[in-house]
Amino acid sequence: MPARVFAALLASESGALTSAELGERLHVSPAAVSGAVRYLSQQYMVTREREPGSRRDIFRVHSNQWYEALANRDSVLQRWESALRDGVAQLGPDSPAGTRLQETLAFFEFVQVELAGMMTRWRAHREALFGPQG
Length: 134
What we know:
The chain contains six helices and three strands.
């Protein structure tokens, strides 16, 4: 359901729809929409906004949703790295399990560095293609 909601928002003219509009377009219940947008919001893929002068929420994708989703993985990776360091310390770096955790930690540290560089390159590439973000 999150994929369907995300696709509906991407394909909409404005990139924003109310819960009722999403339910109508997708032929699903309000509960299904609610669960999907909650998940997408937690993943930084959609934002919840209030229509001016209304009590209705609208859900919006932004042109930089992929950037935001990846950039916000930084805190997740840091938590995993911390947990892996604790695991290595508890299991011992020379134990088979400790060695596996060290390798996993090295992978996440590598991803963290590569992700930061990739995001910097993306911002420059995006600006070259689409101009400054406004």
